[in-house]
Amino acid sequence: MTHRQPHLCYRTVRAAMRLVGRTRCPVTVTGVEHIPATGPVILAGNHLAVCDTFFLYAAVPRAVAVLGKEEYFTRPGVGGRLLARYYRRLGVLPVDRYGGPSAARAVLDTGHGVLHGGGLLALYPEGTRSPDGRLYRGRPGAAALALVTGAPLLPFGITGTDRVQPIGTTRLRPHPVRIRFGPPLDARALVQGHGRRADGFPTTAALRETTLHLMHRIADLSGQDFLDLPAPRKAPPAWHSPHQEG
């Protein structure tokens, strides 16, 4: 989703979530002034519940494109096709979390397309929801996109959604939610001295340094304990066909 008018489905969900935020789950949003009104932007934050994305839609004044797990788009049958269409209309872009380096390159290409079109891209660097409320090691995708495109990289922290929608549930329970947006990181200043590879892509050291700094900023905004360890993940569903690494 770029700067173009978002789909009616997106606008409807955003309006519904704003109503939820005024009635059932009071939402406090701070730091939204850090989000540029136009141009490419990367939002990177913690992930506690499926509803994180929907509360993000309501909080951000611009249309948001979100990187989401590919399993939303690969369920079999008519129901699976309808679900995939629904998520596409919401601006969710599929990400293969099990495909190795080739899948990682595809993620960067997808994100670059959104940013090149002047859009706002949101992602969750942990790659999955936190199973225990702690913040885990980030993947380098957000850092790579920021360093390659020069788009502002804004951290955000969200709290309360794990109480609104505990893992394994679908209904939203009454509980306050808070979203805090921080000022953008100067990603390129963080990696001065690390250089770039021969192909111009940021070095592993540059990606690691930027990602670690980003995760500490997210922890400050969310109040979570940060563990520099990969987040535990479930095995892919039976219908998912992981790509070969290449």
Keywords:
246 residues; 37% helix; alpha/beta; seven-stranded mixed β-sheet; Glycerol-3-phosphate (1)-acyltransferase
CATH class category label: Alpha Beta
Rg, Cα atoms, Å: 17 Å
Roughly what fraction of the amino acids lie in strands?
5-15%
Total beta strands: 7
Describe this structure in words.
Strand 3, helix 3 (77-89) and strand 4 form a beta-alpha-beta unit. This protein has helices spanning 8-23, 52-59, 77-89, 100-116, 141-149, 161-164, 187-190, 204-222, and strands at residues 27-30, 41-45, 64-69, 92-95, 120-123, 153-159, 177-181. The chain has one domain (8-222): Glycerol-3-phosphate (1)-acyltransferase, CATH 3.40.1130. The chain starts with 7 loop residues before the first helix and ends in a 24-residue tail after the last helix. Helix 4 packs across helix 5 and helix 5 (141-149) crosses helix 8 (204-222). With 246 residues, the protein is of the alpha/beta class. It has a 7-stranded mixed sheet, sandwiched between helices.
How are the SSEs placed, and which strands pair?
Elements (H helix, E strand, L loop, with lengths): L7 H16 L3 E4 L10 E5 L6 H8 L4 E6 L7 H13 L2 E4 L4 H17 L3 E4 L17 H9 L3 E7 L1 H4 L12 E5 L5 H4 L13 H19 L24
Parallel strand pairs: 1-7, 2-5, 2-6, 3-4, 3-5
Antiparallel strand pairs: 6-7
